[in-house]
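Following up on my earlier message about cytidine-5'-monophosphate. Here are the inputs again, as you asked, copied directly from the submission form:
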Amino acid sequence: MEKAEQVIIALDYPTADGARKLLKSLQGIPCYMKVGMQLFYSEGPAFVRELKEQGYKVFLDLKMKDIPNTVMGGAESITRLGVDMFNVHASGGKQMMEAAKEGMEKALSQTSSKDRPILIAVTQLTSISQTVMNEEIGIPGSVEDTVVRYAVLAKDAGLDGVVASPHEVGPIKQAAGTGFYTVTPGIRPAGSDTGDQSRIMTPKQALDQGTDYLVIGRPVTAAADSRHALEAILKEMI
Ligand code: C5P
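Thanks, got it. Here's what our run produced:
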């Protein structure tokens, strides 16, 4: 896999126009594009189709969590859109994750597409610190233990991988196997703004941990020259 194909750009924009401007400046670089709730809730499936028509791989980051039957229906609709990756919260439980997979398989059985999306689970958001997890959310123990437990649960449910902090890649791979994907946000090139992320790493450090995909938003989208910022990151990854 080319380095750029391991980078997922977070298109966190309020409208499609902002995202289109970024796409124009990054033209020709084969990154994955991530559509999250901000853009999807304003532009809907039409913009996902637009990205697919332009040949991009798309990660639809809607982090579903609801009763299993509802998530099954959601996964079915998302799969029909033709995305390459989507996710649910591991904290929704094993039965909910199995339902997501079932919804995805149902949609696949009704289409001619042979491309099966990568279905992953969110473990703990990378903005959550140890103190917040223990004292606000009420989950005892270390963040790493919770993340690894969620990863093993996701694997048991038949999912393909998890979203986690790059700090947890090693323990996840150890517990769930190297073939179990890790998708890691909380990536900050050396010397950049951390924003609201708390468990961060540089792109190179994250790759050294064995991560499969790097999710990068503001270091590219908020840069004065986004193409230059992305090229510098890709160079850092070699
Ligand atoms: O701008 P930044 O690089 O922090 O963007 C990270 C992206 O990854 C955001 O779109 C955020 O929603 C997403 N994300 C995250 N932590 C997770 C799951 C997704 O930061 N656990």
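One observation from looking it over: The mean pLDDT is 95. Hope that helps, and feel free to reply on this thread.
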